[in-house]
């Protein structure tokens, strides 16, 4: 069955529960799921029904990354690759980032690539003690898209982002807590109850104040203005960000994963 992003309610209907559901692939994000993520969070943003969001993965994992089985359909063409990252992926991430309703992430199992990006959009992050975090896409022969890398570096820290992307490092939950990415690490069997309790506490507080606080945090992030030279440098990087689409190592990385063999770069 194809993956889905499901929306339900708990906590007397005041907590929106968003579930990444693609359990056969450890909740890897398909293109359709990125679009659904944007739609779900736009609905939450527009509604006065929910006061907090609990974001989780179905079953034993949060999100193992992107659905790599789809990649050969679009990743080797510059414009289709650009559309994937700038429209599908960033459309989903920006909808989460722009949501004024507080978001609690409950993370267990694999939290890789897209999972780290989605978790980075959340306000409170709690994880099971066995959760694993990383973005080992260097093994697949491609970099992280610029805005996605900026998001992870800002929230997880540049040191952590460099380690994940350049070394393909996978870090455990206690280590991510020590680096300030996680608020709490718990046993897996109490994770959902703890996350729901936190969401319930937030939902019991003034929803208008919560929305205003999130708007303030968002404005503070954008406050430092970039000078013209920095703007030009960023635009230049962005204009060339997806030129690697047809590269041999990109093709090899994807092919090796799908063939279940070690890539030959």
UniProtKB/TrEMBL annotation:
Keywords: Lyase. The keyword Lyase applies. Pfam families: ECH_1. InterPro entries: ClpP/crotonase-like_dom_sf (IPR029045), Enoyl-CoA_hyd/isom_CS (IPR018376), Enoyl-CoA_hydra/iso (IPR001753), Enoyl-CoA_hydra_C (IPR014748). One of its GO terms (biological process) is fatty acid beta-oxidation. One of its GO terms (molecular function) is lyase activity. Belongs to the enoyl-CoA hydratase/isomerase family. This is Enoyl-CoA hydratase/isomerase family protein. It comes from Ottowia testudinis.
